């Protein structure tokens, strides 16, 4: 019976995913400091007639929407991959230190060498990758233990957080430029940000398609995967690298947006199961919807103040994380 229910949920999820994505996108284009009717949104997107509405839509809201879609998809897919590799549904790029690595190197770029800020996606990925590599090596004991990966990740996260705080103290005169980024948000993001983020994000998301098979096989256990011809440690390392790349891309533009990689894939896993043929694409879609919807709420509900989306997601994600911990504790 559970198999039949899950099959129905998968079918319905595929049916409603596109309408939900379109609805979230229209919601983002219509609402903000200035509310714009749907008809005007359509005219602004399809006609070249200059107007105030068209300027707001094309120059301000559309690039922000597209960036939000990519950021949400990248974080959710990264979380889904890490949860499979580490075999823990509570894993998240932010919790285990991958995001912190990207954030630290991105902060160094912005504070110390701001003239190199056009390389922010690259430096953020390098930071996330180095962080993931260190965590992997610390957890290595004739194989990377999932439990040790979590413990090493938490320790590295705390260590990088200390370096981040020290960096902000040393460069306190420049910290105002970094503070909004540390909160996580899409305020001020433009076509320039979209253009240098999109190639990296699309490459990462396309590569994640090739991660579906190895991620499914790793869920069977190391011994079973080896029997099926998989080189387990190499596959695990490559999946962690891909997750670090996706997290680094998201961090480079949106800053430290948390909990998307935890909440979305975990919820999708509960509803649709752990099959990555469904889990990965639906996580990407769910992450995109969540970030776009939360960003629209954050910029419109508190007008004239624009709340960074990272703060709103933390307010929603932290209680959800505690609920999951409590639930797992009761089930243990």
From TrEMBL:
GO terms for cellular component: plasma membrane. It is found in: Cell membrane. GO terms for biological process: siderophore-iron import into cell. One of its GO terms (molecular function) is transmembrane transporter activity. It holds the Pfam family FecCD. It is a multi-pass membrane protein. The keyword Transmembrane applies. InterPro entries: ABC_BtuC-like (IPR037294), ABC_transptr_permease_BtuC (IPR000522). Keywords: Cell membrane, Membrane, Transmembrane, Transmembrane helix, Transport. The chain crosses the membrane at residues 65-82, 94-113, 119-138, 150-171, 191-212, 237-264, 276-298, 305-325. Its main location: membrane. Gene3D superfamilies: ABC transporter involved in vitamin B12 uptake, BtuC. PANTHER family: FERRIC ENTEROBACTIN TRANSPORT SYSTEM PERMEASE PROTEIN (PTHR30472), FERRICHROME TRANSPORT SYSTEM PERMEASE PROTEIN FHUB (PTHR30472:SF68). This is Iron complex transport system permease protein.
């Amino acid at each position: 019976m559970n198999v039949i229910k899950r099959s129905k949920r998968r079918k319905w999820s595929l049916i409603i995913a596109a309408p939900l994505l379109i609805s979230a996108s229209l919601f983002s284009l219509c609402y903000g400091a200035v509310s714009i009717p749907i008809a005007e949104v359509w005219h602004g997107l399809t006609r070249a007639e200059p107007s105030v509405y068209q300027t707001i839509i094309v120059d301000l809201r559309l690039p922000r929407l597209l960036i939000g879609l990519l950021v949400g998809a990248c974080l959710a897919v990264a979380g889904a991959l890490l949860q499979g590799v580490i075999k823990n549904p509570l894993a998240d790029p932010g919790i285990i230190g991958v995001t912190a690595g990207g954030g630290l190197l991105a902060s160094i770029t912005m504070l110390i060498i701001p003239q190199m800020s056009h390389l922010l996606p690259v430096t953020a990925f390098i930071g996330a990758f180095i962080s993931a590599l260190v965590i992997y090596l610390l957890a290595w004991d004739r194989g990377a233990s999932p439990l040790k990966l979590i413990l090493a990740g938490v320790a590295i996260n705390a260590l990088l957080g200390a370096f981040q705080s020290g960096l902000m103290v040393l460069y306190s005169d420049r910290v105002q430029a970094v503070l909004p980024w540390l909160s996580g948000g899409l305020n001020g993001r433009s076509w320039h940000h979209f253009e240098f983020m999109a190639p990296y994000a699309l490459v990462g998301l396309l590569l994640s398609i090739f991660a579906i098979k190895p991620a499914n096989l790793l869920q069977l256990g190391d011994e079973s995967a080896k029997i099926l011809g998989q080189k387990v440690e190499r596959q695990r390392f490559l999946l962690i690298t891909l997750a670090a790349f996706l997290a680094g891309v998201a961090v480079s533009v949106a800053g430290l947006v948390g909990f998307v990689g935890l909440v979305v894939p975990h919820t999708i896993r509960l509803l649709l199961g752990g099959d990555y043929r469904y889990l990965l694409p639906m996580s990407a879609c769910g992450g995109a919807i969540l970030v776009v919807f939360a960003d629209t709420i954050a910029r419109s509900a508190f007008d004239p103040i624009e709340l960074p989306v990272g703060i709103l997601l933390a307010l929603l994600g932290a209680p959800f994380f505690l609920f999951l911990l409590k639930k797992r504790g009761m089930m243990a």
